[in-house]
Amino acid sequence: MVAKTNQNSIAEEIKSRLRSGNVCYHSEQNRLSSRLLFKNLKIRIYRTIILSLVLYGCETWSLTRREERKLRVIENMVLRRIFGPRRDEVTGEWRRSHNEELNDLYSPLNIVRVIKSRRMRWAGHVARMGELRGVYRVLLGKPEGRRPLGRPRRRWVDNIRMDLQEVGGRYMDWIGLA
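Predicted structure:
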């Protein structure tokens, strides 16, 4: 289900994905905190059930920093449940894990990097399509009419270029590269 608004904003879609991921997390909460299951199995549950539910259709998202932060919040919430509390070396008291500790414990890509890699994979797929395909025409098409006042919203193509620069590629013709 793609939630549409009159501004063509994907924010409502991301909100609904986060809500459904939150519902799924709460239904799996007992399994994720169980001491009977290995951490590797809990991470697999997270990646196959919760993460796939949250990231459905993420290849087309154009994320803002606020939305990236919301995605990291749900990821850290699940990881805190999986890894449990930490014992402080100085005081000996139990405390919640810090975000940096969670990043160290969960070495695979964080949720924002997963979105970026999926987006680049989808961009390559679309770029390899023929010029007669509708998706390719939408990608390269220029809309008619006037733009609204204010700063232009970041486009999906701009995100692909920024992702390529982050990976190490300079500004290049990514369609020709694909």
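Summary: The chain has two domains: 11-109, 119-177.
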